[in-house]
Structures are given as structure tokens and as C-alpha cells.
Write a structure and sequence with these properties.
By secondary structure, the protein is mainly β. It has a single domain, classed as Methylamine Dehydrogenase, Chain H. The chain is about 5% helix and about 40% strand. It has 4 helices and 32 strands. Strands 1, 27, 28, 29, 30 and 31 form a 6-stranded antiparallel β-sheet that branches. Strands 2, 3, 4, 5 and 32 form a 5-stranded antiparallel β-sheet that branches. Strand 4 and strand 5 form a beta hairpin. The longest helix has 9 residues. The structure holds fe (ii) ion (FE2). Fe (ii) ion (FE2) binds next to loops.
């Protein structure tokens, strides 16, 4: 691969990115969330890099490869159009394991937003290591989009959701991959939570008022609606708490796709995330299907902005407000600060009307200062991960890494920036063998080959 600039000698580990890559022509209409999960891997070792990509070897992917065609209809079609049964929260869907990727106990684990199985991969070779069952103890209820790995304890925290009571479960997996906690979380009905947050002592779940119309689910119609008169509820549970230990707090109505971080401050749990002013932007009744689909994907229409909630566990009081007026989402932090007070989050500059990222923003949540770096005309990036330097003193003594896709020039790169010197531009740019799709969720793991 052609390298421009110099790959830092002290950057050692793997950058992994998931995202949807459709292999076969879709049944009916294609939604951007339908494609098969593909992991892109760039490993860094003593100034050298290695790149691989591989489809996640899900049951659904293998069945479609065997059949030579798509067997499951996607989000834009009714589940009844699928040719096979399927699982996941909505039913009759392909579990594409295409949403997120984390590294837990030295193994990469991919996940699916609609509560699919977790698939294990070698983080360097991307070899398929089969499904994660946590010692065979995990019931086949699936896991939601985002699991959380607490670097300080090695534990993995997760939740899932269903269309029947109790509608949610929450669990903890130990550093040696044993399911050590799994409890039902009672919700008023079927919900669509996407992400969670944690502090050393608490896990933070949510009940946002954007969910499938409950009157239609039993008819097999999964119509997402935003109930703007209902509050958002945040559930705070001790990490090993029982179902009845959840404390629910009511907040201003919204839908939160991703949280940034959380920490404990005296009697309060502080939670940062992206508040959507309008989770369900209205479109004209005669608008195209594409326009109707993208209203749930265009962060500019939803007006997604950094926001802070404070929950007082002693008094029950909630205070909340914006951290910034800038439209953004998909925040990454130095994982050493996950669950603890932090200063910097690196979020994306969303493309207007699309589900791609034109640049990145470094927010200083202490001072409000923001630095913006744009990838260039027609160039879109991925979630930018934070790789701390070995001798780091400050939180932003780190490298930032992203995959970019230059659509006009049909080429992709892996780009490394110095988090402290964004204005200086790329430190190293590695040209990939082929252009790759635009993408979202990614992670960094300081593991050696
Ligand atoms: Fe996500």
C-alpha cells in the first residue's frame, strides 16, 4: 500500500470498522441498514500497516451465499416479503451483524442493531471464531447494537429488547467471558433502544418515546413512530443490580441514538449524549420513499446536538441542557476515560441529507471549544477512533484514525491524525487496495499481532 507521511512508530494495535455491504440484489427496496456486515481491519505495528476486510460469517450470510440470492427483505419492506423465517426483535430479518464492533477479552465481537447474535473474529486475521455464547450460558435473546467494554475491569455490559414483556434485559459478562449477571428490565411496551452508557457503579438504560406503533405490531406491521408528548425515561441500575433496583428519571422528550460518556459526581450521575430536537422530521405526503427513509438518517433534519443530563440519585432531580449548538453525532472518546470525567469527544460532521460523514469535530466539553477538520470534497469518513500514545499525559495525547472514501476519485484511505494537532492535517495516509463503502461504527484495540 502507498503511504504518504509517516506511520507513527508508537502506534500499535488494530483499527476495526463494521458496516453494511450488500452482496445480493435486495428483495424489493433496499435500505442503507440492510447490507451484510463487513469488517475492515488496519493493524499498526512498529511503523508498518496491514489491511484486511472480510464479511462476518453470519448464518444469514452463509444461507444467502448457498442460495445465490437474497432470502430476507430489508427494513423498507414488510417482514412478510422475506423468503425465510428469521430472528431479531422485528422477526423475519437477516441478522447481518453489521452494526458495531468491539474487542472483548482479546477477540473482536460484531453486533446487530435489531438484537442479533454476536459473532467472534480474530481481530488481526478476521478469521471467523463462531458465535459468542459466553460459555453457553446466554439465552438466544440477542444483543442490541452497542455493547460496552469497561477497560478498567475488563467487563462487557449489554442489553437487548423484545416485543413481549418484560421487553428488555440487561447483563454483565466478566473479563474471562462468563455471563455473570442477566436480569429482566420491565418497560411499558416494545421499545427501540440503541445504545447504553456506564459509570464504575451504574449502567444507564433508556426508554425513548420513539418505537413501533404497538397497535400494529400484532398485525406484522412495524411502523416506527415518535410520541412527542411522552418524556424520555432514563433507567439507572447498579452494575450488578436486580430488576427492582432500576431508578427511572423522566426527561425532556427526544430520541438518543448514541451516548458519549457518563460519570459519577457526588450524588449525581452525569450523562452526555446527542439530543435530537426532532427525532421524526416531517416530510411531504407526496415525497419519495428515499426521502421518507432518510428522514430518520439525516442528522441535520433531526438536529442532533451534544447534550448533558444530570440525575440526582438522592433527590430524584434532573437537570439537562445543550453542550453545543453544532449538529453532530457518533462521538468517540479516549476509552481510558469511559465511565469517568472526560474532556474531549470526537464527533462527526454529517453530510446534509445523507448518512455519511464529511469531517470530524473535536469538542472540548470543559471549555466549549470546537475544532473542525473536513476530509475534502466528496470524501466521507468513518467513526474516528482514539488511540492513546504510550507515554500519554493529557487525554488528547493520542492518534485519531479513520477510513475515508473519496467517491469522485474512487479511492479509499486510512488516515491518521494527531489529536493535539488537527490543524496540521494527516500525519499518515495509507491508500487501500480498493475503495470501500462509507461506514460508521469502529473501535480501536491496543493488541499486538
Ligand atoms: Fe449505533
Amino acid at each position: 500500500m502507498k503511504v504518504t507521511g509517516e506511520i507513527p512508530q508508537d502506534l500499535n494495535g488494530v483499527y476495526l470498522r463494521n458496516t453494511e455491504n450488500p452482496l445480493f440484489e435486495s428483495i424489493g427496496r433496499y435500505h442503507p441498514f440492510d447490507g451484510d456486515g463487513m469488517i475492515h481491519m488496519m493493524s499498526f505495528c512498529d511503523g508498518e500497516v496491514e489491511y484486511r476486510n472480510r464479511f462476518v460469517q453470519t448464518d444469514g450470510f452463509r444461507a444467502e451465499v448457498d442460495a445465490g440470492q437474497a432470502l430476507w427483505a430489508g427494513l423498507a419492506e414488510p417482514p412478510s416479503r422475506s423468503l425465510r423465517e428469521g430472528k431479531c426483535a422485528r422477526g423475519r430479518m437477516k441478522d447481518a451483524s453489521s452494526t458495531d464492533i468491539v474487542v472483548h477479552a482479546g477477540v473482536a465481537v460484531s453486533s446487530f442493531y435489531q438484537c442479533g447474535d454476536l459473532y467472534r473474529l480474530n481481530p488481526h486475521t478476521l478469521d471467523d471464531l463462531g458465535k459468542e455464547t459466553w460459555g453457553g450460558a446466554f439465552p438466544s435473546a440477542g444483543v442490541s447494537a452497542h455493547t460496552k467494554v469497561d477497560e478498567h475491569t475488563g467487563e462487557l455490559l449489554f442489553f437487548n429488547y423484545q416485543t413481549s414483556a418484560p421487553f428488555m434485559h440487561y447483563g454483565v459478562v466478566s473479563a474471562d467471558r462468563q455471563l455473570v449477571h442477566y436480569v429482566p428490565i420491565e418497560l411499558p411496551g416494545a421499545r427501540l433502544p440503541h445504545d447504553m452508557a456506564f459509570t464504575p457503579n451504574y449502567s444507564i438504560l433508556n426508554d425513548c418515546p420513539l418505537f413501533w406503533d404497538p397497535e400494529l405490531i400484532h398485525r406484522g406491521i412495524y411502523a416506527t413512530r415518535y410520541y412527542r408528548d411522552m418524556p424520555m425515561r432514563i433507567g439507572i441500575i447498579p452494575r450488578f443490580g436486580a430488576s427492582q433496583d432500576v431508578r427511572w428519571f423522566e426527561c425532556r422528550s427526544t430520541f438518543v441514538l448514541h451516548w458519549i460518556n457518563a460519570w459519577e459526581d457526588g450524588d449525581e450521575v452525569v450523562l452526555d449524549g446527542y439530543f435530537e430536537d426532532d427525532p421524526s422530521p416531517r416530510v411531504a405526503t407526496d415525497s419519495t420513499l428515499e426521502a421518507r427513509m432518510f428522514r430518520f438518517l439525516d442528522l441535520h433534519s433531526m438536529k442532533s446536538r451534544p447534550y448533558r443530563w444530570r440525575f440526582n440519585l438522592r433527590t430524584g432531580a434532573v437537570t439537562e441542557g445543550y453542550l453545543s449548538d453544532t449538529i453532530t453525532e457518533f462521538g468517540m472518546i479516549n476509552q481510558a476515560n469511559a465511565g469517568l470525567p472526560y474532556r474531549y469527544v470526537y464527533s462527526v460532521v454529517p453530510t446534509r441529507g445523507m448518512f455519511t460523514f464529511d469531517g470530524l469535530i473535536k469538542h472540548d466539553v470543559r471549555t466549549g471549544r470546537e475544532e473542525v477538520l473536513m476530509f475534502g470534497d466528496g470524501v466521507v469518513g468513518s467513526e474516528t477512533v482514539v488511540a492513546p500514545k504510550p507515554d500519554a499525559v493529557d487525554e488528547d495525547d493520542a492518534w485519531l484514525i479513520t477510513f475515508t472514501s473519496d467517491v469522485p476519485n474512487d479511492v479509499s484511505h486510512c488516515v491518521v491524525y494527531d489529536a493535539k494537532a488537527l490543524n496540521a492535517g494527516a500525519v499518515a495516509t495509507v491508500q487501500l487496495p480498493e475503495r470501500i463503502s462509507s461506514g460508521t461504527h469502529a473501535c480501536w484495540a491496543a493488541t499486538s499481532r
